[in-house]
Amino acid sequence: MSRFFATLGQTRHSFDSLSQVMACASPRRSGDELAGLAAQNDEQRVAARRVLADLPLAVFLDEPLVPYESDEVTRLICDSHDAGAFAPVASFTIGEFRDWLLSYAADSAALARLAPGLTPEMVAAVSKLMRNQDLIAVASKARVVTAFRTTIGLQGRLASRLQPNHPTDDPTGIAASTLDGLLFGMGDAVIGINPATDSVAASTTLLHLLDEVRERFAIPTQSCVLTHVTNSIQAIEQGAPVDLVFQSIAGTEAANAGFGVSLSILAEARDAALSLKRGTVGDNVMYFETGQGAALSADAHHGLDQQTVEARAYGVARAFSPLLVNTVVGFIGPEYLYDSKQIIRAGLEDHFCGKLLGVPMGVDVCYTNHAEADQDDMDALATLLAVAGVNFLIGVPGADDVMLNYQSLSYHDILGLRHQLGLRPAPEFESWLDRMGMVDSAGRLAPPEPLVRRLLTSEAGR
């Protein structure tokens, strides 16, 4: 007889394993249905949540969802667990943990102390018991601050990644998109390009381009070309100006192998980037991207629901002290997140789980053109995330990435959130905007035409 069961009315609902409880307790999403893991109906989903709420939080320390012997991510999670940090909540059930997180006692300092004691499975489990408003309320209390040339994650700040992608990596097109973003006050988290070709030579060309722009205007920010981590290592060896090393990661060893990476390769890359000593206010040199459905699409999910596997990716990220981590929440497509309701929920879950684990979370608020979503839905998610204290958001020209063929936020969308919610850029970048005469006395960006003239005048005087 299963030890995981709940009776609702006259119906007894039994679950074969802890991983099945987790999957059935998840809000409905197309990826779990595609994998055959989702609850069969809402009543079974409620039963699974009741079972989950009564389980001890420590159950995940005793029963790894992916075997320790066969998965290096599980070994990382287990071996790095901080029992001392976990002690204050060690006696809680998952339901009691939810209640504590929503209490006044769980303030920013308490959450920061607790983070090393939490495992990804713990935060994934408690998120399944929360409404969207609960996820926002708790995440807004969790501050994760990192730094390289700018300081990201401070209270009252909203940073941005300026994403000037181009379908042919044309330097003129990239430079124009970069200038456009700077005029909207974007780029304090990173100026980051997804290269159209995955070669060391192409990446090095783009790295030099971004570094020249940064130095020419004395911009306190960091650049990144989002090429494969092994390309970044080679570029560093060749003397390229690498600020941040990028890599897409997932929550299992097999899924990471599908990306062509391992924990040892990530460690090698971090050491290489640290050796350059290019940071001025900090030494967080890694940038990771994740997304629900990545492990399932690689058939490397070990029978876990996609949100739990996603949380495990944040366990990987945490080990390398990154400057930035973001979930590309709607990028994989409707096979995994069917519509705006699922995309919005996933974005709030990912941000919540990452922040509780001590990861500096941002979100690419995005969708593909064949998903049941539109730009109004992205406006809603971006606003919810800004209220929840997201570290950074991603902006592309006109909200339309012409290289990757998906829809994101525009530069003015993020600027609008800053103005509406009283949020400011990273402090070092804000000071630069002020020195360049790009903001008024209230910290708002001035009209664009005078800004262009000021930038061109500044350039002509150099």
From TrEMBL:
Gene Ontology biological process terms, A to Z: amino acid metabolic process; ethanolamine catabolic process
EC number: 4.3.1.7
GO terms assigned for molecular function: cobalamin binding; ethanolamine ammonia-lyase activity
Cofactor note: Binds between the large and small subunits.
This protein's pathway: Amine and polyamine degradation; ethanolamine degradation
Gene3D superfamilies named among the record's database cross-references: Aldolase class I, ethanolamine ammonia-lyase heavy chain domain like, lyase
Obligatory cofactor(s): adenosylcob(III)alamin
Source superkingdom: Bacteria
Binding site for substrate: 161-163, 194, 289, 364
Catalysed reactions, semicolon-separated: ethanolamine = acetaldehyde + NH4(+)
Function: Catalyzes the deamination of various vicinal amino-alcohols to oxo compounds. Allows this organism to utilize ethanolamine as the sole source of nitrogen and carbon in the presence of vitamin B12.
Quaternary assembly: The basic unit is a heterodimer which dimerizes to form tetramers. The heterotetramers trimerize; 6 large subunits form a core ring with 6 small subunits projecting outwards.
Name under which the protein is recorded: Ethanolamine ammonia-lyase large subunit
Protein source organism: Magnetospirillum aberrantis SpK
Upper lineage: Bacteria, Pseudomonadati, Pseudomonadota, Alphaproteobacteria, Rhodospirillales
